[in-house]
């Protein structure tokens, strides 16, 4: 750096020239045109192997989701009851990289035990299915017109290896990166804003350079900073002395910083440029955010000085009917639905997410607890990561932290979930080691671990004293005594609730509580419903959990409880407690697998947002003589009144600690109406009518315009309604979705956890009146989507493929 300062003003002239030069760095999308084959033969890695008969596909790809559900699939229903196995991918490519370049291949995620060859040369194995990795291809790659072959063997045959659905294959993006030899190291840059004031903030970035000649005075390094509106506002220059001529810190002041927050997620851009003798050698850029936060043992959490609760949900990585194959627009839809509910944080249970998921969280304003592992050296499943942990945990943890540490959304690291080492003294040493690995790479964020043993005397991970914030799972009854049991410690409810519900299904009495399974004696069900449903009155929870309402009541009450991560935001594939097969996806979600909110979604919305909420449940199709429990969630009102066929059934107010009101209503068909009042004036009204037989199909299209280049999807919600437009609450019609030739149905779902029809089809039953079709564009233009069902009036809609 001293060289640059010495060069002073005359360098500025050169800089202008440098800025205009094209960066030699090329980042090439490597997802298209792979050959795929299930099975395993030694010869498939060979350069000479002829793979033309293999299936041609584009990544991301998950072969499990394409399979058939079966009780005999070794993943079991906890793993989603879909097939695993071994699969191979091969891709032929040429590169016009100039000889002397560095060429590398990057994988964002392969489940699991990925082995990679180029031109028959073995590059290595990457066991963990959730961390990103790359290989330097430079020594093996052939340039110009010569063909190169990448072969990838993916082995998900040893099962069970997961407590949830993992997916199989190269299920995240791949890319080829070409740079000069002198370049920014991959993940070698760490941006922080160590001082943030109203008038200014300090931008500080430490970056690692590859192949810089020691003492080379002609190296110019700088970082241009753009504000959220895209204006160039500052340039950071090296400061202090270069550590060893390859690690350098650049700093600058950012005036009037626009802070990143969950309400206003302002993103800056940093463009790093490295030139030698006036020639641009490498350019690399990232977004970043300016924010500060702290946890306090008494006051809980504050972001940018403002106290706030962490209103979080846990999310597994699958995207429902798409399986594990990442699609940004599908992840965005999940996040949009959660944002509208009022969630402001996500815990990536129990592994690092797709990097684009974090981009979305940066852009949409979610805090993220980025989690590394579900087990350490002690297993939870026969073939899980435990056997790789000793040799690989350092690398996996390093890759997570280095990859994700520039995301403003990521606010804490979790070194594990319900790790069995919490029960013995190995927990002390391992926790210290893992926290140490994280802190070496990122001393700025707190580290936690999601602990299930809430007795501090029995919890060895807690006793390591290595955690910055104590993460407790469940045991809400112990939260009141947290300051006494954990004096001076900071708290996060790393996992809560585990309520169970099927969208649109109701078993009364609504205000009863069913623990289901009732104890550890019962893995599966005592007295299940024959159709594998669970009541959606928020009256069922696993015995280790509590209802949504019980949990939120406590989290809300104490300031020192910084917040919670509800298990779970969405239903996910696998872990269908409380049912055995054919149940194959979870009941835990606030939102079902297809993205349709369950009723309790509105409890959160009424508490976690300011927008006026009034939600009435259940449907109004019952049998005469039944007494039905009717509930309403509401806010921004003093009281609500229920009417049946125009006759009042009385006004009610929520009790101080309750988030809903209930009426017991003798059923007569007709119209149920609820009205909310504030100061005597009507705020909102909702009605539910007794529906007749299915007559028509109604469509709602989300993402009407989809970009081909970004692999965006349209989401078509299908509602079966009677002739007056009322949702038919038990409708299960088989619907068929066809499109014009420039689009295709990629998957359908209905959110029913025991549905055994494949997802990747264009005909599927709806469940409780609702279904979903996900549409992909094939060619630009308008695409018509037509939905038909026997005996019903067909409906069409259109989307625009751009
Ligand atoms: C927790 C666990 C989660 C999930 C949940 C279901 O104990 O951390 O992964 O299994 O229970 O209730």
TrEMBL record:
PROSITE patterns: GLYCOSYL_HYDROL_F2_2
Residue stretches making up the Glycoside hydrolase family domain: 697-796
GO molecular function: hydrolase activity, hydrolyzing O-glycosyl compounds
A UniProt-annotated Pfam family: Glyco_hydro_2_N
Gene Ontology BP term (one): carbohydrate metabolic process
Domain Glycosyl hydrolases family 2 sugar binding: 85-177
Domain Glycoside hydrolase family 2 catalytic: 298-567
Gene3D superfamilies, sorted: Galactose-binding domain-like, Glycosidases, Immunoglobulins
Domain DUF4982 intervals: 625-683
Domain Glycoside hydrolase family 2 immunoglobulin-like beta-sandwich residue range list: 192-291
Keywords of the record: Glycosidase, Hydrolase
Keyword Hydrolase: yes
InterPro entries: Beta-gal/glucu_dom_sf (IPR036156), DUF4982 (IPR032311), Galactose-bd-like_sf (IPR008979), GH (IPR017853), GH2_Domain-Containing (IPR051913), Glyco_hydro2_dom5 (IPR040605), Glyco_hydro_2 (IPR006101), Glyco_hydro_2_AS (IPR023232)
Family, similarity comment: Belongs to the glycosyl hydrolase 2 family.
PANTHER family xref list: BETA-GALACTOSIDASE (PTHR42732), BETA-MANNOSIDASE (PTHR42732:SF1)
Descriptive protein name: Glycoside hydrolase
Organism this protein belongs to: Niabella soli DSM 19437
